[in-house]
Design a protein that fits this description.
Shape: globular
Largest sheet: 7 strands, parallel
Bound molecules: uridine-diphosphate-N-acetylglucosamine
Number of strands: 13
Helix content: 40-55%
Number of helices: 12
Strand order of the largest sheet: 3-2-1-4-5-6-11
Distance between the termini: 46 Å
Amino acid sequence: MFNQEYSMSRGKVIVTGGCGYIGSHTVVELIQNEFEVVVFDDLSNSKEFILDRIEEITSVKPLFEKVDLSNPIEADIVYKKHADAHSIINFAAFKAVGESVRKPILYYKNNLYTLINSIEAQKKYNIKNFIFSSSATVYGSPDILPITEKLQTKRAFSPYGNSKRIAEEILEDFAKAYSDFKTISLRYFNPIGAHESGLIGELPNGIPNNLLPYVTQCAAGVLKELQVFGDDYDTKDGTPIRDYIHVVDLAKAHVKAVERLVSGNMKDKYEVYNLGTGKGFTVLDIIKTFEKVTKRKINYKIAPRREGDVLALYASAEKAKNSLDWEAKLSLENMIETSWNWEKLYRGI
Ligand code: UD1
């Protein structure tokens, strides 16, 4: 049957982990930029209703395959079925840093098997383009700021972080060996915020590990008190500096990366980009901005440093600006407002 929607699209993109936090925002941006999207997700750390929310925002429900991509047989079946795609965006991974220290095999197995099964299928079914969801954690504790992509990556503190670094090396070797395929790794700094509709956002499993969901859950009364991990760092107020970036800006960068891969204008077969704003904020900056924007008090106390935390991480965003034609636009206030709006709507406050 003639399918008008498909015939008008810019081709099919497979999004693994597309029901998750960054994945779902990226699916929205892809659909709004006229790509056809198929989501592969095992729903181990996400919910299927997110697909309905994506439909509410975009009026298009993405195709969906519930699949455990760490299983090679299951992975092969879904990639074969969607071999007409031109690009794969790989978000599917476990991401709890602390848990990865306690369960390294689980993390290496899930994150790396999923990646390897995906690129094996990519090659077998000739899907030309691949985007990998990486992290600023690959830089470890940098001596030079802002961080440019030229900085040597280091063995990460956690198996989670290390799985990202190893994955990047696997992808670089893949690109060297098979010249028909092109890959972009995107190194995220600290993604926060939510879609302006309040319909999708971050849904942490259990007690959140990351700062913003902890703050919003404190403000919502779900958690009692925020612990600020250390106030004796060498910064203006003693708390660590991070480069917080709006998840919608981040999602838009993935659309730019797909366009770059499809355009054939890549300088190299394998490219990496930092995705950050280039600005750093401390933990206390975040708390104060949250209180100002939402008019809610955050109950917090100073606690000991968290193992593995570094003093300061912020990006040089120049390479993404020059080659991807992308830069972050949304403010810290907007990041915090949308995070809080999502939390309120989700909890019916
Ligand atoms: C963490 C991960 C990083 C991962 C990223 C994903 C670690 C060491 N690093 O980055 O590998 O890619 O999340 O988003 O876990 N903070 C508090 N109290 C809290 C939570 C956080 O004070 O309850 C502080 C932290 O000390 C840090 C800042 O808030 O200074 C940001 O923390 P977080 O959101 O966990 O991100 P990262 O640690 O930068």
